[in-house]
């Protein structure tokens, strides 16, 4: 999705070429087809190739991916996600990062979430 957002549109070959550690061409095609079936991308035909473009705004795609991650790996528990994030990246967090997270938690408490 990042490649499609950066370029506006891309063929499977373009996506493959832009990936740092690419899977097979058929894996990229399958992923793009899955994203299309889910409504995240659409395609147009240009000559013999399909050119894919994003259908969702980046914020919507992030929300959808995060929801899937939350449901799939963390039993729909935001606190487990935060705990995993802190465990993995604690050494990389700046004081600004921690302050922003604390402010977000405070806002969520105020709003009764």
Question: Describe it for me?
Answer:
The chain has 113 residues and is an alpha+beta fold. The protein has two domains: 2-54, Arc Repressor Mutant, subunit A, CATH 1.10.10; 74-110. The protein is 62% helix and 12% strand. The chain has six helices and three strands. It has helices at 2-7, 12-18, 25-37, 58-73, 78-89, 95-110; strands at 10-11, 41-46, 49-54. The chain has a three-stranded antiparallel β-sheet with strand order 1-3-2. Helix 2 crosses helix 3 (25-37). The mean pLDDT is 92.
Radius of gyration: 18 Å
CATH superfamily assignment of the largest domain?
Winged helix-like DNA-binding domain superfamily/Winged helix DNA-binding domain
What is CATH's topology name of the largest domain? Arc Repressor Mutant, subunit A
Mean pLDDT: 92
Low-confidence stretches: none
CATH class bucket of the largest domain: Mainly Alpha
> How many domains would you count in the coordinates?
2
Structural class: alpha+beta
- How helical, in percent, are the residues? 55-70%
Q: Could you state the order of secondary-structure elements as H and E?
A: HEHHEEHHH
Question: Total strand count, please?
Answer: 3
Largest sheet, spatial ordering of strands: 1-3-2
Count of alpha/pi helices: 6
**Large-scale geometry:** elongated
Which CATH architecture of the largest domain? Orthogonal Bundle
How is the biggest beta sheet arranged? 3 strands, antiparallel
Distance between the termini: 30 Å
Measured by DSSP, the beta-strand proportion falls in 5-15%
């Amino acid at each position: 999705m990042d490649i499609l957002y950066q370029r506006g549109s891309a063929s499977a070959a373009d996506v493959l070429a832009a990936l740092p550690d690419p899977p097979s061409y058929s894996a990229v095609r399958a992923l793009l087809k899955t994203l299309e079936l889910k409504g995240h991308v659409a395609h147009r035909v240009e000559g013999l190739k399909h050119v894919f473009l994003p259908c969702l705004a980046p914020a919507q795609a992030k929300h959808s991916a995060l929801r899937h991650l939350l449901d799939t790996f963390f039993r729909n528990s935001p606190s487990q996600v935060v705990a995993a994030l802190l465990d993995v990246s604690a050494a990389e967090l700046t004081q600004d990062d921690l302050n922003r997270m604390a402010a977000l938690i405070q806002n969520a408490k105020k709003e009764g979430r």
